[in-house]
């Protein structure tokens, strides 16, 4: 049963991250995902210091606020400060992340958050942290409900805003011309990324969440040219990564989140080499066949 | 030569636009007639793209205002369509030709609503008009530059708007396609639609447009083609560059010809 809960949480997390990551990579904003996942840290710590408990809702709010603030800061430095996007991302998130680390170490005594857990997460603890009602009934692991709710929110967001997200991602100028607010959808998307990041952070940690945000959609992008397929394929890759990642970790007795990220990276490498679209081995083979045919015909 | 019209499609009043405090458009004041095919002409960096973007209020003005059909742009947005410069989007995006053309229908659909069968029919019809119906399921990454341009045009047509702003729709299309597109624009103008086109070729401009705007940061001229595409104004616009002088020479030559034809 433990395995089931862990894999379920892992799947929820990787589907949420992967779906949003699809938009990020098509908007050439992969690094923004990276930035948000790091910058939410002080939000979590501050929320914890204020409320004094590891209550997930408080943390979600704290992190969500910081996530959107991060995107504002990046936009602000880029537009007003005239700084390149990558530079403004680099400045913003390292600074906020460092602030979070300082807060954790300074309040280490009072804070029941440890650095390792924040950075690497511990999905193996999912089955231990149960949600128990006031009548004493055990409903199930808390993480499953949190990551599950976040997944539902994100899927609803994508279904409701499918057209708008699609258009503002592909052609923001045309979207603005027909009165679809690119800024609004940008910040909604960033809010959703913050939400997914925080929900994932307890289980996979702040660093590995980036792997789930970018690797599965990047893999799917290499394998299909249809946007909807890309989303669906990303979701299936997320599930596959959770299942194989879990069993890999069990067999080598290692970190589950680490194993999941490794699988995600391996899948990307495979797609990179063998994708029918632009895989380098397939392209090389095709070129060889063409050359051979050409030389035979002469 | 700046001619104003009554009941204009677009009215630009004392418009100044700056990027980072550097003025790009300076005190533009013009009116464009309804139902005309209007060419905006000027050298690279003259502010042509900036002008049509500020007409659609896509970038902030430093001063002045724009009115479209005597209304605030936000009240008539769905009636305004835009064909951006082709290079402004990533053509490796995972989308099909049909997906892109359907975007033209989004202005008419609210949140939640998916394009319906009727929308698909309009989109297909517009693809036919630009001769691309055979490519409707093709991924856009597999189109040539000219085909991409036609897809953008079909998307604008699918919006069924009243006024169209097109940023270099003829860039990179072959002569036959250019003729087909201009035929299409004429058809639209006959139906009373206003078409504003950024264009680079002065010779064909003479034949394509019935109204010309000459721009080089400042407004040099705005008026009927025959009165604006004249060597003195063109020189003022381009600042007497070598290549231009050659073009002007050609133009005069051509005028002589057309003049002779008429006689
Ligand atoms: N986003 C921007 N930020 C800063 N300057 C800009 C921006 N966009 C355009 N400019 C500047 O404004 C001026 C006008 O640009 P614009 O794109 O309107 O010219 P254009 O007439 O369309 O030129 P082209 O024929 O090359 O398309 C140029 O000097 C350009 O460098
Ligand atoms: Mg331009």
Listing every helix as H and every strand as E from the N terminus to the C terminus, the arrangement of chain B reads EEEHEHEHHHEHEHEEHHH
Q: Tell me the overall shape of chain B.
A: globular
Q: How many β-strand runs of chain A?
A: 2
Distance between the termini of chain A: 66 Å
Q: What level of helicity do the residues of chain A show?
A: over 70%
Whole-number mean pLDDT of chain B = 88
CATH fourth-tier homologous superfamily of the largest domain in chain B: P-loop containing nucleotide triphosphate hydrolases
Q: Which structural class best describes the helix and strand composition of chain A?
A: mainly alpha
Largest sheet of chain A: 2 strands, antiparallel
Largest interface: A-B, 27 and 33 residues
Write the element-wise H/E pattern of chain A from the N-terminal end onward.
HHHHHEEHHHHHHH
CATH class of chain A: Mainly Alpha
Helix content of chain B: 25-40%
Taking Cα atoms only, what radius of gyration of chain A do you get, to the nearest Å?
Answer: 21 Å
- Radius of gyration from the alpha-carbon trace of chain B, in angstroms: 19 Å
Structural class by helix and strand composition of chain B:
alpha/beta
